[in-house]
Amino acid sequence: MSHNSQWDEKWINRQVAVAEYLDTLSELSARLDSLQFFAALCETRNISSRKMLPDSDAEDGLYIFA
Question: What is the pTM of this model?
Answer without folding.
Answer: 0.62
